[in-house]
Amino acid sequence: MFANEIIVTKIMLAVFMPKNQGRPIHKNRPSCGLVFNVGCNAEYVFEGGKTFVCHDGECIFLPKGSNYAAERFDISDTKDMGIYAINFLTLDDENMKEPWVMKIKGENEIITLFSKAARAWVKKEDGFYEECFSDLYRIIKQIKKEYAHYFPKQKALEIITPALQYILENYTSEVISVPKLAELCDVSEVYLRRMFQSAFSVSPAVYMRNLRLQYAKELMQTDEYSVTDVAMMSGFNDTAYFVREFKKATGISPSAYRKN
After folding, report:
1. Is the whole-model pTM more than 0.70?
2. Distance, CA of 75 to CA of 6 (rounded, Å)
3. Could you give the CA distance from residue 80 to residue 17 in angstroms, rounded to a whole number?
4. pLDDT averaged over every residue in the chain
5. Which of 14, 116, 202, 244 would bridge with 206, disulfide CB 3.0–4.6 Å?
6. Angle subtended at Cα 167 by Cα 222 and Cα 170, rounded to the nearest 5 degrees
7. Which helix or strand (DSSP H or E) is residue 38 part of?
8. Alpha-carbon distance 181 to 216, whole Å?
9. Cα-atom radius of gyration of the chain, to the nearest Å?
10. CA 109 to CA 6: how far, in whole Å?
């Protein structure tokens, strides 16, 4: 991802490629590229087998020197369906060797910038090159801005992965303590709680309670187990506590939920 300063030295091309245009095989790509999908999905299989799927409304970064095969799958019949692409060189291409895909929330703004650059490149009016530079830097800025909000959650998930794995394997059979989870992740209890809040907007205890309640709902739908059985099987060792928590989460009792 664009974690460091990006210094663009040259723009090679800004283009919109509609349906059925573009080469499927790319070898030793001569420049970096940012590609944005409109009304289509695309699969990129890189040398070594690493595969990325770029969906409608997503942006993929294609590194200079990369080898890959690309295939597009149209999901819309609109005339605007296709991909926008800006190919460019940077001062530090060697540190931008990894492809990535990112969903863009500010989709309309990104489309406008890509579209402006593509039109300017075709018309070649005075100042078109500077306009393309400006549009590309604004696209990079938008990507960095959105990634800055996206990254903390991803980092938190990496840190608490051992805890999540342990929870999924044991939440129905064990009372799992926060100190135990913190020890598994080699972090303090305070930091573990902060990472759960960042990743899921809830505490570890609420995260585990929600898992147990979801599993309890699935068991209730089978109509094979009593409320007490469901409480025990889903990790609630106290039936009265299970009923209280179930009603707090759903607004109705387990028995009413089963009838409904």
Report:
1. no
2. 33
3. 10
4. 89
5. 202
6. 60
7. strand 32-38
8. 23
9. 25
10. 20
For residues 54 and 98, the answer to whether their CB atoms sit within 8 Å is no
- Separation CA 192–CA 178 (nearest Å): 8
Please name which of 41, 155, 146 lies closest in space to residue 103, comparing C-alpha atoms.
146
- Residue 199: both structure tokens together: 């990743």
What is the C-alpha separation between 93 and 79, in angstroms, rounded? 35
- The span from the CA of 231 to the CA of 218, in Å, is 12
**Would you state the structure tokens that stand for residue 46, as one six-digit string?**
């890189």
Q: What does the alpha-carbon distance between residue 134 and residue 227 come to, in Å, rounded to a whole number? A: 63
Which of 38, 30, 37, 5 is closest to 140 using CA atoms? 5
Burial 163-199 (b: 16+ CB within 10 A, else e): bbebbeeebbeeebebeebbebbebeeeebbebbebb
Which residues is 8 bridged to in the sheet? 90
Both tokens of 246, joined, read 């179930």
CA 248 to chain centre: 31
What single-letter amino acid sits at 89? L
In the chain, where does DSSP find H-type helix? 107-123, 128-159, 161-170, 178-185, 189-200, 204-222, 227-233, 239-250, 254-259
**Two structure tokens written together for 186:** 């080699």
Copy the structure tokens of residue 133: 């530079």
Q: How many residues does the chain have?
A: 260
pLDDT tens figures, 113-172: 999 999 999 999 999 999 999 999 999 999 988 877 666 677 788 899 999 999 999 999
Alpha carbons 147 and 156: distance in angstroms, whole number: 14
